[in-house]
User: What shape does this take?
Amino acid sequence: MSNINIREMTEKDIDQVLEIERLSFTTPWSRDAFESEIKKNLLSKYILAEKNEQVVGYAGMWLIVDEIHITNVAVHPNKRGEGIGDKLVSKISEICRDRDMRAITLEVRKTNDVAKSLYIKHGFKEVGIRPGYYSDTNEDAIIMWKELG
Ligand SMILES: CC(C)(COP(=O)(O)OP(=O)(O)OC[C@H]1O[C@@H](n2cnc3c(N)ncnc32)[C@H](O)[C@@H]1OP(=O)(O)O)[C@@H](O)C(=O)NCCC(=O)NCCS
Assistant: This one.
């Protein structure tokens, strides 16, 4: 996995990010959403994983006081199971530690066992449910937290 590079996302990456977004989510974010996050949202930070100069995954977060709120994490379907999700979540934990922030949180679909397993592996715990949070399918969200010591 040493040939995976993690770096900040820029506007130039959005085409490749959108391709992964559309392959990964039933209600994908639009180009405008990513542009606005990168250009206008002062609280946001977007990172990506690249392999041989190809974007293979990405993650977004909002840095709110001493908490990181993860907005999205996705890996290209052809590149899953290679440890890229691990690298992205490890990087988020590193950002949290480096900035002396207290905790990381996210919502995940109740049925998304793969993502839940990834987060549990990284020390997240299931702390609550938001009933019907996902309006496309009315699915519940599981709220997960990781407290940094
Ligand atoms: C969730 C996702 C980001 C994982 O990325 P990935 O690069 O395939 O994950 P990794 O290869 O780094 O695996 C890390 C951990 O995830 C979990 N995982 C990955 N693939 C899995 C699978 N097929 N079944 C169960 N758990 C799995 C495991 O805990 C794994 O750790 P392990 O290899 O030590 O068992 C990826 O599946 C994805 O993009 N899914 C669609 C988008 C999505 O659901 N995002 C999360 C929104 S909250």
Q: What stands out?
A: The chain has four helices and seven strands. The radius of gyration is 15 Å. The chain has one domain: 4-147.
